[in-house]
């Protein structure tokens, strides 16, 4: 009996999205484009996929306006691939899939804002060392849009945190999530150490998935002298595959610290962060 080909339900948005993406290779291509791998050879090498399959999947994604093909060199003509607005709208789906995998496939299903040092997500974060963060601007408490790396500083310390309780109070259950509490303390400790970082030519940047207005209200209330970035659209989270957990109906960045060079190369990472004060001192030692 011949196999029937699958036809997506025309009235089901989930089925139509599955049809749009096509298969697992297409999902992974979108994942790697979000990470800044925009050229064919880099995609082929990173995915370990045949050039024929990659060509077919990219063609499908371009045809359906998930990806655009952009010329970056005239002679000879060379192209790179970038996510369109439609493609970038898939980023929260990718982050949710990663969160599901970390929690339910690699973990025991517990809702947690941290991880053990031996967890796959910890190895994934440690593998960021010596990789390069793609150029990325996010809204910050100092500018409408600002590069997350300070090219004028000798180093940039970028610390990610779940959420602060100002201006939106956190629920009582927040304290029951391992690793979730301590965001205000972390900002205060970096604020206290800020003059020492500045004296060493080091920029301090904080980032969470809270909205820009929430970040600004907190920064003003706590007199935070360095920029706090809003990754509410998860662009940075997807670019670095940062670990997250879902709480208060939002994906939250688990506490992590990265040290970057001006050329955007990641020199060191700290994850999981179990002792906030010790981690601030670690960042001071590595950037002194």
CATH superfamily of the largest domain: Glutaredoxin
Q: With helices defined by DSSP (H or I, 4 residues minimum), what is the helix count?
A: 11
Tell me the fraction of residues in β-strands, as a range.
Answer: 15-25%
Structural class estimated from helices and strands:
alpha+beta
Q: What string, H for helix and E for strand, traces the elements in order?
A: HHHHEEHHHEEEHEHEHEEEEH
Please give the order of strands in the largest beta sheet. Answer: 7-6-5-10-11
Fraction of helical residues: 25-40%
Report the CATH topology name of the largest domain.
Glutaredoxin
Q: Number of domains in the coordinates?
A: 2
User: In CATH's first tier, which class of the largest domain applies?
Assistant: Alpha Beta
Global geometry = globular
| Rg calculated over all Cα atoms | 20 Å
Give the averaged pLDDT, no decimals: 95
The profile of the biggest β sheet is: 5 strands, mixed
CATH architecture of the largest domain: 3-Layer(aba) Sandwich
The separation of the N and C termini measures 71 Å
As residue ranges, the low-confidence spans are: none
Strands, total number = 11
How would you describe this structure in keywords?
single chain; 288 residues; alpha+beta; Arc Repressor Mutant, subunit A; Glutaredoxin; 2 domains; five-stranded mixed β-sheet; two-stranded antiparallel ribbon; 11 helices; globular
Layout: helices, strands, pairs:
Layout lengths: L12 H9 L2 H11 L5 H8 L3 H13 L3 E7 L4 E6 L1 H4 L2 H15 L14 H7 L10 E2 L7 E2 L7 E6 L22 H17 L2 E7 L3 H11 L5 E3 L4 H6 L3 E4 L2 E4 L2 E5 L5 E5 L5 H12 L1
Parallel strand pairs: 5-6, 6-7
Antiparallel strand pairs: 1-2, 3-4, 5-10, 8-9, 10-11
């Amino acid at each position: 009996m011949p196999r029937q080909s699958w036809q997506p339900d025309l009235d089901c948005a989930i089925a139509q999205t599955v049809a749009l993406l096509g298969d697992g290779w297409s999902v992974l291509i979108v994942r790697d484009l979000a990470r800044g791998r925009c050229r064919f050879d880099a995609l082929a090498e990173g995915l370990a996929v045949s050039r024929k399959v990659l060509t077919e999947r990219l063609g499908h994604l371009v045809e359906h306006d998930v990806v655009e093909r952009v010329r970056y060199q005239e002679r000879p003509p060379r192209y790179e691939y970038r996510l369109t607005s439609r493609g970038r709208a898939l980023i929260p789906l990718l982050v949710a899939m990663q969160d599901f995998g970390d929690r339910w496939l690699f973990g025991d299903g517990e809702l947690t804002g941290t991880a053990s040092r031996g967890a796959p997500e910890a190895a994934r974060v440690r593998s960021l060392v010596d990789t390069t963060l793609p150029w990325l601007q996010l809204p910050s408490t100092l500018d409408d849009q600002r590069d997350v790396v300070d090219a004028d500083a000798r180093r940039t310390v970028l610390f990610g945190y779940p959420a602060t309780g100002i201006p939106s109070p956190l629920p009582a259950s927040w304290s029951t999530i391992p690793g979730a509490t301590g965001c205000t303390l972390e900002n205060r400790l970096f604020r206290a150490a800020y003059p020492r970082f500045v004296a060493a030519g080091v920029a301090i940047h904080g980032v969470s998935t809270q909205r820009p207005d929430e970040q600004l209200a907190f920064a003003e209330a706590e007199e935070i002298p360095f920029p706090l970035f809003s990754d509410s659209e998860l662009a940075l989270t997807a670019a670095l595959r940062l670990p997250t957990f879902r709480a208060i109906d939002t994906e939250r960045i688990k506490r992590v610290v990265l040290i970057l060079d001006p050329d955007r190369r990641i020199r060191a990472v700290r994850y999981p962060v179990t002792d906030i004060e010790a981690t601030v001192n670690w960042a001071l030692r590595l950037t002194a």
